[in-house]
Write a structure and sequence with these properties.
The protein is α/β, with parallel strands linked by helices. It contains 15 helices and 11 strands. The longest helix is centred in the first third of the chain and has 25 residues, at 2-26.
Length: 363
């Protein structure tokens, strides 16, 4: 009787193990993406889910520095991360990302638009597949800027007429970069005196700004709470262009300008986390985004430029004119560089940012 009972228990245990194994085999795989807000088309995501028979979950960050600290601190629930170029090599050195297997992403090298090669910090694509290029400038309310005011210059951030009506991006490299440009310096300078001068410039701007913001500023300027926003081109274009599919009307009363002194250019990349649970699925998504039709649909949503030639070539003229810069304008921009091999410079920028964010002295 005891042997028979033991046999029954063993049979039941085997059945449970078999059912668990079957459930695991049929479980829908999940691709987790860690990226900026409003940066991947829901329709593109849905198309990938259907084609790959998976689920896609998107988590967002509000700055490169926040993302890096989260990943370095042990965030493991992501497969694909979308940092700006200047952080990729540092993430690789820290062992946070893995090399890409290009046999699994043939569309990347086949469809990459070589016109953007000079803007990529690592054109070998060892760890990175370029996602989108952004330009940082000023979005403003045309009705609130008095005639004769030079809105094409960073100096407008010093104008007391706009006190508490300005937002600055809550992003270290972007704010310091804008101040460096305003002072006539490179956004990648390693000179302590220039970085210090930029910190002082940004603190002076702070007397006019309402807040630092990287997400809510779109709603603030759309509602009229603020009149000028230090803005990423993709965000600005989404607000100005609107989204008819989502019932968001265009805003012809708003405009976006790349200041005449110069502006920041940044490429956001797709990298695969060293903790990815689905690296094959991550490669498949990267390859999917480099299909011409998919890139076109994604650009129509983010109102930004992906370096996917067949996608760019198929864009309508209105959108193409909106997001493509001419060669002369691009010359005024500068690509954010990396300081991963220079910890002293890295510290200089971190210290400058800390100084910029300190409370202002009362007048």
């Amino acid at each position: 009787m005891k042997m028979k009972m033991t046999s029954l228990i063993s049979a039941a245990a085997c059945a449970i193990v078999a059912l668990a194994a079957t459930a695991k085999e049929t479980e829908t795989p999940v691709l987790r993406i860690y990226t900026w807000a409003d940066y991947v088309s829901p329709e593109v995501v849905e198309g990938f889910e259907k084609s790959a028979n998976c689920r896609v979950e998107i988590d967002t960050f509000d700055s490169n520095e926040t993302m890096f600290e989260q990943i370095k601190a042990g965030k493991k629930d992501c497969d694909i991360i979308m940092p700006s170029s200047y952080l990729v090599e540092l993430m690789a050195e820290e062992g946070l990302v893995v090399e890409l297997d290009h046999s699994k992403i043939p569309n990347v090298r086949k469809n990459f638009d070589k016109r953007f090669a000079k803007l990529i910090l690592d054109p070998s694509f060892r760890y990175n597949a370029p996602y989108a290029v952004t330009y940082t400038g000023l979005m403003y309310d045309k009705g609130k800027v008095p005639t004769g005011t030079d809105v094409t210059s960073w100096s407008i951030l010093d104008n007391p007429a706009f006190k508490d009506r300005i937002t600055l991006l809550d992003d270290q490299r972007e704010v310091i970069g804008a101040a460096l440009i305003a002072l006539g310096y490179s956004i990648n300078t390693k000179k302590p005196e220039e970085i210090s001068a930029a910190a002082e410039c940004a603190r002076r701007w702070r007397r006019n700004i309402l807040k630092f913001d990287v997400e809510g500023y779109k709603a603030s300027i759309a509602s009229g709470e603020t009149w000028i926003a230090h803005a990423y081109s993709t965000d600005a274009m989404q607000v100005i262009h609107g989204n008819r599919r989502q019932g968001v009307a265009p805003r012809p009363d708003l405009a976006f300008v790349l200041p005449k002194e110069g502006f920041v250019i940044a490429f956001d990349e797709m990298v695969i986390s060293a903790h990815s649970q689905n690296p094959d699925l991550a490669h498949a998504f990267i390859d999917y985004l480099y299909r011409g039709d998919v890139a076109k649909a994604n650009m129509e949503f983010i109102i930004g430029l992906m370096p996917v030639k067949p996608g760019i070539d198929s864009l309508g003229k209105e959108l193409s004119d909106m997001i493509m810069l001419d060669a002369e304008t691009v010359k005024r921009g500068e690509v954010l560089g990396s300081f991963e091999d220079d910890p002293k410079t890295f510290d200089l920028y971190n210290n400058a940012w800390t100084k910029i964010k300190l409370p202002l002295e009362a007048k």
